[in-house]
Amino acid sequence: MPFAIYLPFFPGHQPNLIFSREAEIADYAEYLGLADVTTSAAVFTNAVPADGLVLDAGCGGGRWLIRLHQQGRRTIGLDLHAPVLQRIQQYVAGIPVLQAAVAALPIRAASLAAVISLGVVEHAPEGPAAALREFARVLRPGGRLLVSVPFNNLLRRVVVNQLYRHYNTRWAGRGYYFVEYRFTRRELVAALREAGFRPLSAHPHDFLPPRNMGIVADINMLATRFKESDGELRLHLPSNPEWRLAGWRAALARLLPRLSPWLAAAEILVVAEKTAADA
Predict the structure, then answer these.
(1) Are the C-beta atoms of 244 and 37 separated by less than 8 Å?
(2) How many structural domains compose the chain?
(3) What is the DSSP string of 155-198?
């Protein structure tokens, strides 16, 4: 079973406040440039077909959507949060965008050459099946899916997951909200096959050192706190828009990938193909 992450939140402060923060990007050019320091950057260039429409399902601030558009792909962005879509159109007016959920795509069947969906399908409490089936529905026969989810890497299994359990226990009675599932490679591959895909390759998806999306994300979520202000509890979230580590954390981010690129990778990225049976 994928490892479920729950964080303590109070009524009115649900986790969507965390996941909508890409609308608040201070330096958009810097945000987009982080695509160039990603371990899996070449995968997007090589695995996304050059012809046909490409949907970024849950595009957020549009880092990969815009990168593929600049490489000559015909792209469409889709997200639930209107502010991030507005920001994309302000930056690149030529990219069409849709406001919708990934589990109910307003797109006709078999019309897309590729779907990319990065760090999205893990946020459904019922699991990723509904979204993956929708991706299969809208892809043409042989269409490509590039999907990433949080990776339940060795560092997380040995250390971080135990901290989440301890952290949640101390906040017992305050209320928990589901945040995400974290998958092993076997779990993600099984979900893709069940939805009608043939997995082709798997890749660690994170930034190059001294940046590390996984370590920073875990530090930030474990540091989530509520502070009282004017008689109200307000959500306090650490900020690290560059995902950059310093000191011993940076040393760890450099050491672990040398041993194996999977040891501390934030996400696993799988390239899959829509099977003929589903077509």
Answers:
(1) no
(2) 1
(3) HIIIIIHHHHHHHHHHTTTS-EEEEEEEB-HHHHHHHHHHTTEE
- Measure the CA–CA gap between 265 and 215, rounded to whole angstroms: 9
Tell me whether residue 89 is in a domain. yes
Q: Are strands 112-118 and 139-150 parallel, antiparallel or unpaired?
A: parallel
Other Cβ atoms within 10 Å of 91 Cβ, number: 16
Sign of CA dihedral 158, 164, 170, 173: negative
DSSP secondary structure, 28-41, as one string: HHHHHHGGGGBTTH
In a domain, 279, yes or no: no
Structural domain boundaries, residue 82: 3-274
Angle at 219 between CA 171 and CA 79, to 5 degrees: 95
In degrees, rounded to 5, the angle at the alpha carbon of residue 116 between the alpha carbons of residues 58 and 89 is: 50
Q: Specify if 189 maps to a domain.
A: yes
pTM: predicted TM-score of the whole model, two decimal places: 0.90
CATH number assigned to the domain comprising residue 256 = 3.40.50.150
pLDDT at 146: 98
Residue 79 lies in a domain: yes
Residue ranges in the chain modelled with pLDDT below 70: 8-24, 168-176, 225-229, 231-241, 277-279
* Three-class DSSP category at 225: strand
